[in-house]
Please model this.
Amino acid sequence: VRGIVFTILKSFGALKLLNRYKRKKNLTTVLCFHRVNYEIDPFFPSINPDVFHELLKYINDHFAVIHPSDIGKNIKTSKPKLVITFDDGYKDFICHALPVLEEFKMPCLHSIVYGCADKNNQIWTQRFWNTIKAYSRSDNDILSFSAYDKEYALSKDVDQLIKAFHPLFVLLLNTPKQERELFLQDFENKLQVIPDIESMMTWDDIQVCMAKGVEVASHTMTHDSLVSTTDRKELWFELNQSRIAISEKIGNEVNHFVFPNGENSSELRKMVYEAGYKYMHLLDDQLYDTTTQSNEISRISVYHTSLLENIFRVESFHNFVKSPYRRFFK
Ligand SMILES: [Zn+2]
Model:
């Protein structure tokens, strides 16, 4: 259906109108990517490298890709402006995304979790879904899983499994990190999952990216849920210490901060300024209004397996055509 809709929009010149609208209103499209690889993962989808290549080709034809640090500047371009960002520091960025970005000479921002780069720790959200994925692929007959005095149904059907485990995911999001870590270790042990220590970029990998024009942002120390952290000391550690520590490791200033899971509040945004960042990145699926000169950057999440679905998001059609199916994690 979307294919037909897109063809119609294209043939009626809707794309041209939309492009003119974005230029006139000085709206910048800021995209947020995560993983680019050939894995099939229904729980935390990756973009197929061939789809990624086609998508960047599309972006190259229809947008002017600008440097992340030029985001607030009033640069004149003949095409609508677009900024590319990546979150989390996955290693697949090096072999599947970086060569394509180089091919089209596109700069980008990549947000790094200090603890992940330093200790090769996988982000806990990824570990959680990996464990669920391992279960869905196993011959395990467990029909339910008990956690925090609640039973969770383990259906072999992927959509049902995601639905069943969503409340547990939210619960973990709101659980203090030490307690969450113990739970995850137990969960992994029960389903015999070994966290993949090869999946995150190391400091050496990050240097390779920087040499090729990638700007590094902070994505906190541990990718903890900031909105559910009440201890200000802990928050200051995640915000300020990550800027200082990443900056020391990479030998460069860190001016951008990216909220884990996009979660933020007015108090947190204030703290990010106080911690010395110039820009903070949200995940609200909106276009960034350059005229406001705001340092709070709206971003659009791009995560589909099909090229067309991704083009829909890049063109921000999702703001006009609401999808009944929304991902609950980013
Ligand atoms: Zn993240």
User: Anything to note?
Assistant: Residues 220 and 233 are 14 Å apart (CA to CA). The radius of gyration is 20 Å.
